[in-house]
């Protein structure tokens, strides 16, 4: 049985739905904090059990009889992921898959990518066969940033750097291949990235072209952006986490384009323009 955690989130749910196209539903299970939110999956014959990284006993039940578990990463703190790894190992899982990040590095300026690197080490130390999917930076992040800019005409952010923005659908396909074709992606994968490097100024230009609404990229100092974010009600820890993304981008941590993803998929990786066309113009 394949068990997917976080199956009510965007990535996890999409992986489960794609798996269900080719895997018998009685061989699929999900581990979710709130089973009621996965009632539609249960109605399709997929096993739904409560599983919470903060409650190891619940994970033991959620992972029961699983041969593979896909741990969809959550917060930057690696501790909950270690709990999930330990629970999977205790349940006798043969292979653990984890959604890591293209920039996973203990020296990263972005807290989350340091956490991913720590979890990769935990996987290597577990003694269980594993795959760490080094997913590219989600292209949907730019959609989130650009929606308000489409209303105001200004994309006000700290100085950034080039990023190989990567589509959810491509990463879903990669995860499904990793789960259904064991051996194709073992250990820590290459960076699974989009096909080009673009910064937010270039993303704003694409959005302007697609929507016909002019967006001007405005660069502000980190502290000025943080204060404005706090004034809008953003929690300070989230503001600091976000600033870490920009600091890492400026250092070039996300400036990697790797051929691994299109090679795996057997087709070109989705461009940022294609993602924005689907998410901003519909």
Write up what this structure looks like.
The chain has 282 residues and is α/β, with parallel strands linked by helices. The chain folds into two domains: 2-135 and 168-188, Rossmann fold; 142-147 and 153-162 and 195-280, UDP-galactose 4-epimerase, domain 1 (Alpha-Beta Complex), CATH 3.90.25. The chain is 45% helix and 15% strand. It contains twelve helices and nine strands. It has helices spanning 10-19, 39-43, 56-62, 79-90, 111-125, 140-152, 168-180, 200-211, 222-231, 236-250, 260-265, 272-280, and strands at residues 2-5, 28-32, 47-50, 68-71, 95-101, 129-135, 154-158, 187-188, 216-220. It has a seven-stranded parallel β-sheet with strand order 3-2-1-4-5-6-8, sandwiched between helices. Strands 7-9 form a two-stranded parallel sheet. β2 (28-32), α2 and β3 form a beta-alpha-beta unit. α3 crosses α4 (79-90) and α8 crosses α12 (272-280). The longest helix has 15 residues, at 111-125. The radius of gyration is 19 Å and the shape is globular. The chain starts with a strand and ends with a helix. The model has no long low-confidence stretch (mean pLDDT 96).
